[in-house]
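WARN retry 2 of 3 for item q-0093 after timeout on previous attempt; input resubmitted unchanged.
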Amino acid sequence: MSSSGLESGAARPRAVRAQGLRACRFGAVMANVVGEGAAGRSTRTLRAEGALSALAADPRSPDRLRRILEQALVFAGASFAGFYTLGEDGELLCLAEAAGLPRTLCGVRDCYSAAGRGPVAEAHRGREVWLGPKDLAAQSQSRRTPRRAFHLAALPVRHDGGGCLLAVSERPGGFDADDRACLALVADAVAFPAPPVTAEGADLPPGGFSLAMDTGRLRVHDDVLDLFALDPDDFDGRVETLLGLAVPEDLPSLMSVVEADHMTIGDRELEFRVLQPAGPPRWLRLRGRLEHGGEGRPAHLVGTVADASSLRADVTDVARVQRLAAALSTAVTVRDVGKAVVAALRRPLRADRIALAELESDRLVVTVLDPPEPEAWPDVWRSEWRTEWPDAPVRTMPTLAAALREGRPAVWPAGSPLEPALAEVGPGGLAVLPLPAGNRMAGACLVGWDAPHDIGVDERTLLTAAANLAGQALTRARALDAEHELVGMLQRQLLPRRLPRLPGAVAVARYLPSTAGLKLGGDWYDVIPLPDNHVALVIGDVQGHSAGAATLMGQMRTALRAYAVEGHPPDVVVSHANRLLVDMETDLFATCCYVDVDMEEGSAWCVRAGHLPPVLRHPDGRTEIAEAEGGPPLGVVRQCDFPMSPLRLQPGTLVALTTDGLVESPDSDIDTGMERFARQVAAADPAELGPVADELLGRALRSDDVALLLMRYDGMETRPLRESWTVWRVPQAVGHARRFTRRTLRSWGVTEEIDAPLLAVSELVTNALVHTDGKVRLDLTLIGDRLRLAVADASPRSPVRPTSIGWEATGGRGILLVEAVSAAWGTLPVSGGKQVWAEFTVRR
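OK item q-0093 returned
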């Protein structure tokens, strides 16, 4: 080592020197192991040791920890690897670095309690933990459990602060012996991490920055300001100052990184453009990571900004193909595939326009255009422009049709004689890439240049590799799109097409499918009009996301509506649905919240079956989570109680019902989510419920499907007049019912045109007494000039209007008389019987 190196090492802080010496010792140990124990180790283990020893030789590398974790992906077959270390409060183990899949796909959190009993805490205390899918399912006490079969490994990391190496594998067999040996090597390497560059107490590295997420204050290295062409004396320390220099088109992607709400622990990388005092915009590359500040302290976004033009030479075509393959592996729609292809080809090829199209019969259906403006594309395409995307027939482009038949990429230089539909795509050169998928063509990708462009060998290789990858991905995405469309149609058929108009209230509902996997879930809602100006609000959730869950959801919605319309009280409705689900002998269960609202009185009864309680926003803006006692989920226990809890609604009260997909997330529990949901409802303006529902759903994480039902109770402007009479089975029963009706109508000011109602009362009461047993009740209701009289009995059989009656018949004319003298008549089921009603227009 030179003397200058010794002086540099002596000038370092003691902790840094100690960290570097330990890393060097680790590298030496690795080298000895490779040399002495190679005979007894597998080739994979030896390669892992060599790779980790090389990383140990550079203890000051800023991305050293992430590169060490990546070795777990390469040599141990892990899909995710993360390092947890104690936070400053000493109570939480926080994710300091990660590599591989996003942690949310693996059901992994940012932080775990150090005193808990989970795998991370156990490994931090010194015990190795190896869990399979069944073990993970048994330990899970929430619905955050990943739906895929994962194997989990947690190994202690023995260094000054302790910690844990967490690895997740998707392979069916999990971690074998060699995998475990490699993970142990990674854990030993993680035990000697280089000191992280933090937002406080350390100098920023070249090109580094640190952003406080609570205040937006930004610390940057001077060379970052040079990239933005900004003088250090003119920089005010605000992130908005630098954002104002970015090209407006790149601001959305840039904001997605610098906003904490859209980031989790782990690296983020993007390229963006900044305006320069002279010349074209400059491309910059940002790499950042969100770091927890500990209990009571704000989080910081730390990272680096570099000139992207100086980095492009380090990115090979192989790396571009690898990135495209990674992007296409997560693309679930045809448009996602197109966007991934455009992102992989546009800048490396310096192309002016790229189009990706599906081949459907004899038509070329373009799914992604870059640039998207119609003016940038040929006239024949614009002539068939449909909504957002064009639909071009292949027969109008023979050159393209020939390329598709041959199945090989074709390149035409500038000036080639092509049909106008293609010549305008690439006047300086055109590349046509057929997208193969098995023994057929899935589509085509067109790459065009305005200025003359010679396509080299490397570019041809990149085009060929991209075409093969895109063809397979396009076929897979097309199948998923068709499946999603079928699923969406099924979902729409199972949910109400529209909500009914309510007396004295307004209701809106929204449903959003999950963005993970099939867009098919078990969440549902319903609004059921009931007699006597009652309305039932229903929201529920069937366990799981599958066709079985959706089918069961439709059955439960139908059952609850049927029991409600029969006239049962809320607790009986839910109890009947529970017994029905138990008798169906399914492995799924359902949760439900049922609210019966009396629109006349402004009161309600709430029944909960393992579901979230309603949120009430009162007219003065005060919001509360209703204290409604709950019962178990439907389909779990056959004999159980579902208690009813009273609710009081003042005019202007907003009732909000939702499912757990809106309030639960991997980072917070349901209680915290409900409190946040209540605050959002409190801040909403209930005058227009549609925008309120859209705003509430706009905050959903969409890892689960979401149902939302809102009702604003305004109160009825005109309350009906009501009276009831119990008809006793005595010889004078019909006369008593007529006198009660006449007396009630006179008290309401109806003295004229009462003969028809009295005749209908005689016929309906007589039919009930003659043809049924049990109690008979007469109800009178007057709303404005509309009189409704109803006779309820204990028989569920509805009267049938006779088609014809002979002169000799002694019965059957009663219903014909009621139909003749009334404006309308009908029957309704009530609890254990029926109600026959008739309506009349009267003058008061």
